[in-house]
Amino acid sequence: MRVVLDTNVLISAIFFSGTPSKIFTHWRKGNFTAVISKPIIVEYTRVAEEIGAKFPQIDISEILELFILNSEIVDTGDLRITVCEDPDDNKFIECAIAGRCEIIVSGDKHLLKLATYQGIEILTPRKFVDNYPNPQKK
């Protein structure tokens, strides 16, 4: 299974317990392939640095680097999607299309409002964990 994790899901997984951390555990066990793009890496890094400043006891850079190194990085090329109310969210859909992903996991209301796009499911972390308790790589 190929999955794009929105920034809020990844950052929540790293800093807090709960459903996003369960998703992160599935990823660490190799139960699905995380797919990312350069624009997503830039956003992950920016947000991680902002949150990391508030939680200096957590070495976010090391965890984020491991995530990036163990994810599949895709080139979105000239793909430009403009379907989200928040234009910053389009990069997640572009990545999912370029990476042939089945799912985007997000807590973002603008992405969730779409529900699906070109056959890609957009799920909350809870729905992902409930619907795919043991996701497997394809």
Helix proportion: 40-55%
CATH superfamily (homologous) name: 5'-nuclease
CATH topology type: Rossmann fold
What is the CATH domain class?
Alpha Beta
Describe this structure in words.
The chain is an alpha/beta fold and 138 residues long. It has helices at residues 7-15, 19-28, 38-54, 60-69, 90-98, 109-114, 125-131, and strands at 2-5, 33-37, 72-74, 103-105, 116-117, 120-123. It has a 6-stranded mixed beta sheet with strand order 3-2-1-4-6-5, with helices on both faces. α1 (7-15) crosses α2 (19-28) and α3 packs antiparallel against α4 (60-69). The protein starts with a strand and ends in a 7-residue tail after the last helix. The mean pLDDT is 91.
Provide tags for this entry.
7 helices, alpha/beta, Rossmann fold, 138 residues, six-stranded mixed beta sheet, 15% strand
Question: Could you give the topology of this structure?
Answer:
Blueprint: E1 2-5, H1 7-15, H2 19-28, E2 33-37, H3 38-54, H4 60-69, E3 72-74, H5 90-98, E4 103-105, H6 109-114, E5 116-117, E6 120-123, H7 125-131
Parallel strand pairs: 1-2, 1-4, 2-3, 4-6
Antiparallel strand pairs: 5-6
Short summary of the structure?
The chain is α/β, with parallel strands linked by helices and 138 residues long.
